[in-house]
Each structure stands twice: as structure tokens, then as C-alpha cells.
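My main concern about presentation is that the manuscript never shows what a single data entry looks like. For the editor and my fellow referees, an illustration may be useful. For illustration, here is how one protein appears when written out as sequence plus C-alpha cells:

***
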Amino acid sequence: MNRQAIAALDAARPAIARLDRSRHAEELAADLIEAWSGVETALRSLLGGTPLGGQQLIREARQRQMITFDQANALAEFQAARERSQDTSYHPSDADINAAREGFLKLEASLMTSPSDDAMAPSPGHAMSTKGLRTSPIAGPEAVAPPSSNRRTWLVPVIVASAIVVIAGGTWAILANRGNGAIDQGVTYWQSGQRERAVGEFSRAARDNPKSALPHVYLSRMAREAGNMMLAGQEATLAVQAEPDNAVALREMGSYLLAAGNYELSRRFYVRALQTNPEDRMAQGFLGCALLKLGRYDEGMRWMNRAGQGSWSGCAQGMGQPGMMPGTMPPSLTSPPVNPR
């Protein structure tokens, strides 16, 4: 795995996340150009350094078998979208946005794929030169007797299957531990105010364990803190997709929707979170907040009283604060506790 190439993709990830048809054409074009620049840097790192760019760079990566034919085609579409965006009169289309996202994801997939085991296999000549032979300690190769016909041939597949299970289990444990270490380090960076390093660690944890919701929960929370609601929504969605029954992921989606002003849908996600974990005080408190925003004051206060004092308490206070516009979020919702667990 090429760490420099992955780092270059991580740097381009925010530009990819910002691609949305609701934004101005000039902003979309700028993000397409910025994202492609990161992809080119990743490809150059993958090749060990080269002055090539554009189609030539993609062709070189394909010829060296660093990327597949399908990945090369996706990158070519991305590069073409980038070229069109160079024209100041051009308005990037949905197809351009989709091409950028697909090219980015497929390059990332190629970086996460380990080299083929075929490259480690011995050459045919070498394999044939010792077939049926073994080395004697006092002489050259000598013939080995063929296996007897009554040997229990079923042992081989059983042993192979057992080895695969053990290796798979060990690999999963290693990746899980590495992902947890990255999350812990990311939390440490976040709490000390080193946001960029925290984002890098959480992103690495998400790559190491794609089926874990927690890295995306942290990334969504950090994006909400920074006021980047588009990215917060994307990360919250990825968290729920990774683990649909994860109470923390469901609660984070509820928090994103609450901050975005979608109170009814927010309420539903808090309810789902509590169905998974009825003891989640944060989900209880912010469910009460969502109900208050929906005008269901008695229900909302019951849930908030059940949760007790917490960062959600400011929501009830905000309902009566003079000068606060209906639907705005009190300060407690824009900076919730660091640890979402």
C-alpha cells in the first residue's frame, strides 16, 4: 500500500465531498480541478514519481498494471470532466460529478488492494525443475516416490480450509485493532485541538475497517462543529450504512438532522437509536429537544427530564430565549460532548 498515494487522496477527499449540484458552477469546477490534482498526485506517488499527467499518466499506470482496465476508464472519465471544467463558460453536469466520485473511489479501491499473489509465484521453469525431486544432504536431487493410492486425499482440502479460516480471523483481528488504535489517536488529537490530524486518523480507521460506523460518526461530529453540514450529512449516512443497527450511528444521524432543521426525521432516528439502546441518555435528551422543536412540549420535557442534565438542556432554555429565531439551534447542539459512545 502506498502511503503517499493514500495521503494525496485524503487531501482530495474534501473537494470530492463538496461536489453537489446545488452549489454554484464555478465552485463545482474549482472542486473538480482540485480533486483531480489530488488524484494525479496519488498516481504519481503510485508510480514512484513521474512528470506525466492526464491521459498519459493514466496510461502509464495501466501499462504497469498499477490499476485495472475498469479503474483506468473511470479515471479517464474523471480527467475528461476536469478538462471540461477548465472552460469558464462550462457548467459541470451530474455526469461530471458522478465521474469524479467514481474515479476517486475506484482509485482508492486500487490502493487498498494488495498486490496479486501471482507475482510471488515461482516461474514455470523453476517449478518444473524440482518436480518430483527432493534434495539429499550428501548428493544431488533424488527421486521421490509417488504418493500411495490409498492416501486420505480428503485431508488436504480440510487443512487448507482450516488455514484459510485462521488467516482470515487473524487478519480481521489485526485490522480491527489497527482501526481502534487510529480512533483512539484521533480522539486524542481532537481533544487537543489538532483537527487535521484527527481527521486523518479517523479516515484511516474508516479505510482499515470499512464495516465500522464509529470513524464516520466522529467525522460527522467534527464536520458539524465546523459548520460543514454537507460533509456531516455524508459521514452520518456512511455511518448508518456501515452499521444500520448501531445506536451511536443512528443517534449521530439524528443529531445531524436536528442541526439541519429536519426535526421530524431527526425524531425518528433518535427513536431508532433508543430502540437499539434504551439507556442512551444523549439520544433521550436530544429526542426531547426534537420534540420541543416540533411543538410537542410535554413529550419533549418528559424525555429531557428522563435524560437529566446534559448538553441537550440548552435546547429547552433556547425555546424561551428572547431574540432566538424559531428553528435555530442553541449552542449546546453545535458543540456536543467529544466522546459519542
Residues 114-144, 171-178, 320-341 have pLDDT under 50 and may be disordered. The longest strand covers residues 133-135. Strands lie at 133-135, 141-143.
